[in-house]
Amino acid sequence: MLRSAVLVLLMQGLVGGSTIEVVQLYQPLSLHGTDGVGEVKDGEDLLQAAVLSRPFAVSGALPEDLVKAVAHPQQIPSNNPGYQVEDANLLNLCQVGLNVEIRGEILMVRFDVSELSIPEEVDLTSRQVLKLAIQAVRRTLEDFLRDSDERIEVSVGILGTNDENAALKDLATRFVVGT
Asked: Of 18, 49, 101, 107, which one has the fewest beta carbons inside 10 Å?
């Protein structure tokens, strides 16, 4: 009897357990406090920021929780004791919210700038922060679907603007990732 009760509990744990998948997660990271600069494209300024990837163990609803992870804190490891950064993720540093949900067949990604505040040491504009964040979402999804025949339509919106930053709404975009 005890054996069958343990077996039932084990089976429930297996059925109710969540799947964990290791993926490449791209994040918009500040490189302040370093001598590094991010990727430079034609005509763009040098930025002390970049979209960089790292392995990340994700579980939950995919692709929603994967995209939400773009805002996960990132403490860049260093062998230099003088470089100590609690969180290099620009979304967190600049207090930009990230909401993700699927509506019908569309992945809705919304950046909330209602509490946007760029720290003095982060020498970027709000537009640059959001462009890097959108690029991180896109690259994360492209990498995730790289060997898949799936296709995801993505709608990116900017919420919480005010009179001073209303022009950020023009960063809203739609794109398709996958085959």
From this structure: 18
Q: Which residues pair with 27 in a beta bridge?
A: 52
Name the phi and psi angles at 65, rounded to 5: -70, -25
Q: In Å, how far are 35, 40, 115, 124, 161 from 170, measured between CA atoms?
A: 32, 22, 18, 18, 11
What is the Cα–Cα distance from 115 to 45, expressed in whole angstroms? 26
Q: What's the start-to-end Cα distance of the chain, in Å?
A: 52
Q: Are strands 173-178 and 20-30 parallel, antiparallel or unpaired?
A: unpaired
DSSP 3-state of 28: strand
Q: What angle do CA 68, 70, 74 make, to 5 degrees?
A: 125
Residue of 175, 158, 155, 176 whose CA lies nearest to 167: 158
- What does pTM read for this prediction? 0.87
Reported as type and span, the H/E element at residue 29 is: strand 20-30
Distance CA 138, CA 176 (A): 9
pLDDT tens digits, one per residue of 48-69: 899 999 999 999 999 999 999 9
pLDDT at 34 > cutoff 90: no
Give the model confidence (pLDDT) of 77-115 as tens digits.
889 888 888 899 999 999 999 999 999 999 999 999 999
